[in-house]
Design a protein that fits this description.
Keywords: Membrane, Transmembrane, Transmembrane helix. By secondary structure, the protein is mainly alpha-helical. Helices cover 68% and strands 0% of the residues.
Length: 179
């Protein structure tokens, strides 16, 4: 039995996939920076961070969280690295889903969240461990995976809204004279 996505009948070319990938990867870069900016503002307003936090308490989870937030904040400045990385990751995951005739919103958001968490979380974990210790890396991983998953889910939703796979994959029957 042939899988549904490999069947020859149905609509031809799926449109707006590359546009959706480009917009989603640009939004991912911006969203990671904006989320970290909001979290930094809230935590600073609550008095969680002190000015000399990373200097006096270098090997703690909180210094790792602060370092991870700072790294996520710089994500927008490193767009020439982060946008292509996000484009490639999203292209090989959610970019193939319309061609496999997946029309539900859930898989798009789920896989974009997974890849967002992997890309942001792995980067912050690596540099958090290099900065201090495994405890610092744990704090950086915690905030990196969280921000990456939230930004990824929102970008998967944006991709779904741009491509609209359900509308494109719906076979419309316009025959008027069939009995």
């Amino acid at each position: 039995m042939t899988p549904a996505y490999a069947s020859p009948q149905g609509p031809g070319k799926i449109k707006r996939v590359k546009l959706g990938l480009l917009m989603s990867s640009l939004a991912a870069c911006l969203m990671v920076s904006l989320l970290s900016l909001v979290i930094i503002f809230v935590l600073d307003t609550l008095g969680v961070f002190r000015n000399d936090f990373m200097l006096t308490d270098k090997y703690s989870v909180m210094s790792g969280i602060q370092f991870g937030l700072i790294m996520c904040l710089y994500n927008f400045l490193l767009f020439f690295l982060t946008v292509p990385a996000a484009w490639i990751a999203l292209g090989f995951s959610i970019g193939r889903m319309p061609h496999r005739r997946i029309t539900a919103r859930g898989p798009y958001m789920r896989w974009a969240a997974i890849w967002g968490a992997i890309l942001v979380g792995a980067t912050t974990t690596l540099f958090g461990v290099l900065l201090g210790s495994l405890i610092t890396g744990l704090g950086a991983a915690l905030i990196g995976f969280s921000i990456g998953a939230i930004a990824g889910a929102l970008c998967g939703l944006l991709f779904y809204a741009i491509v609209k796979p359900e509308n494109q994959l719906h076979a419309t029957d316009i025959s008027v004279f069939d009995a």
